[in-house]
Amino acid sequence: AEASSDVYEALSTYGQCIGHAFQIVDDILDIVGDEKKLGKPVGSDIDKNKMTYPALYGIETSRQKARELIDNATAAIENLGQQATPLKKIALYILHRVE
Description:
Elements: H1 5-32, H2 35-38, H3 44-47, H4 53-57, H5 59-76, H6 85-96
Helix pairs in contact: 1-5, 5-6
């Protein structure tokens, strides 16, 4: 079945926001994360001089941006009703990794 253009737009916005938020959270965890919990070494972005969101704007501003993106993602799918529940849970999981 084909999705309506409204559903497509909602999911597209959700995906863009979630993707961006995930990357910011991943970059934050590379600085402040626990290697044992993450299962990978931390600090590799700094070692490689990568220009990450936290490197440019700091940890707290990055957390705020991730929160804003998660809020935008969940707002975008609000009209999908119960079908949006798993997507909202994913969004909140991403955010809670750095809160």
